[in-house]
Design goal:
By secondary structure, the protein is of the alpha+beta class. The protein has 2 domains: about 1-95; about 100-195, Alpha-Beta Plaits (2-Layer Sandwich). Helix content is about 60%, strand content about 15%. The protein is built from 7 helices and 4 strands; from the N terminus they run H-H-H-H-E-H-E-E-H-E-H. It has a 4-stranded antiparallel sheet with strand order 2-3-1-4, covered by helices on one side. About 25% of the residues are buried.
């Protein structure tokens, strides 16, 4: 009897259910954000798994709203959970650091030392002479795992703190030189993706 009175209490209806909706939306939107990022990178294995759990959690949250259409707190919890879920999803994806990126470095000074350091670290490097708006420059291209990005940027800044660089996601790359990965799970996912 006391359990039924708790479920019918104002505290349950105005605090517990909105909190449940808020947390459910954070989880399902986070999964959705990561899923969309994986789809854009062509990761066919993980995207459907994230999608399944995303929609199951969404159905639970929307079910609570549909049962209580007059409670404005539920709507606020739903909207706040959606906003927070986008933020959390991006943070999760950054922490996972899956995929590859291309780093383009443009420098006006001789880049021999930087190129040697990158190559000794196991990165594939392409170098070209070019003409910038203020004179001759060296273009350096390297494709690296996202988890290696900070290491490469640190090398660039150490070499030339004023060097220009840009970073973009790479959807696919093949026949490149990449340092060996120590994570066997990531290696499995890459192998299964490559053979699809």
């Amino acid at each position: 009897m006391s359990e039924m009175s708790f479920l019918d209490s104002a505290f349950f209806g105005w605090v517990i259910i909105p909190l449940f909706i808020f947390i459910a939306r954070i989880v399902d939107v986070s999964l959705g954000t990561v899923r969309i990022i994986y789809i854009s990178r062509g990761m066919k294995v993980l995207s459907p798994i994230f999608g399944f759990f995303e929609i199951m959690i969404w159905l639970l949250a929307i079910g609570q709203i549909m049962q209580n259409l007059t409670n404005i707190v539920y709507y606020l919890a739903y909207a706040l959970g959606f906003s927070a879920g986008n933020f959390v999803g991006i943070i999760i994806e950054e922490r996972l650091a899956m995929g590859r990126i291309v780093i383009r470095i443009i420098t006006q000074i001789d880049a021999t030392v930087l190129v040697e350091k990158l190559r000794k670290s196991g990165y594939g490097v392409t170098v070209a002479n070019a003409e910038g708006s203020t004179g001759p420059v060296r273009l350096i291209f390297t494709v690296v795992e996202r988890k290696e990005m900070e290491k490469v940027i640190a090398l660039v800044k150490q070499f030339n703190p004023r060097a220009f660089f840009s970073i973009e996601d790479v959807r696919r790359a093949r026949e490149g030189i990449f340092p060996p990965s120590g994570n066997s799970f990531i290696h499995f996912l890459k192998f299964s993706h490559k053979n699809k």
